[in-house]
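Hi team,

As requested, here is the filled-out complex form for the 2'-O-acetyl adenosine-5-diphosphoribose run. I kept the field names the same as last time so the parser does not choke. Let me know if anything looks off before we queue the next batch.

— J.
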Amino acid sequence: MIVALTGAGISAEVGIPTFRGKGGLWNKEDPKELATLSAFLKDPVKVWKWYDWRRSLIKEKHPSEAHHLLARKKIPVITQNVDGLHQRAGSEQVVELHGNLWRVRCLNCSYKGWNYDTPLKEVPPKCPECGGLLRPDVVWFGEPLPEEAIRESLELLNYCSLMLVIGTSGSVYPASQLPYYAKERGAKLVEINPEETPLSPLMDLKIRKGATEGLKEFFSSYEL
Ligand code: OAD
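And here is what came back:
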């Protein structure tokens, strides 16, 4: 079975900025100020304004051809992206390691729900059930990954014979460990990324192209 691990590079093709590298969000902003629970508690308005901006940007975009190719080939996807574009492209099996920026959850009660307002009606948004502070249901630095996402990822990788590693810098733990896990279980690894990454030495094949061109080349060469 083929499994894809995707990162911000697959969405970069439709104009959603990556985090690192040229034009990366973390070149302009300090992740400690925007993507940690302590930053959120210190200034929820600032953090929500940044998420509101990202949500508005993403809402206008459509999935890339690469998202559609993975969906058409029915390849299960493990993604670090929070933009929901794999689902919008029609992928049925998507494991979200870092959550989803269209979902919110309450810091005060157990409320969790979807919110597609762009811009948000109020910043910061309040819980419809208890009036508490809502946060984006994404994983911030220092927070554990959702247990179910880890379990589902490992289950997929236990049956994986070929892993496509697409558009990730491979620099964020523990997502960056998944290719090692797959390789240890005998999977072949293919990296599709215009740039070298820390994961490159692990790869059986490196396609130094963007996600769409790289996937097309891969599928045409391997007739899958
Ligand atoms: P990064 O921004 O770290 O890396 C993006 C990767 O995409 C780089 O290796 C680029 O070379 C590559 N890339 C750029 N354009 C591409 C294209 N057209 N096709 C294919 N690849 C391309 O993004 P991630 O690895 O996804 O976490 O980052 C991992 C995590 O770091 C994110 O989920 C986020 C961030 O902090 C959290 O917010 C917890």
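Two things worth flagging: The chain is about 35% helix and 20% strand. The beta strands are 2-6, 77-79, 94-96, 99-106, 112-114, 134-138, 162-166, 188-192, 205-207.

Thanks,
J.
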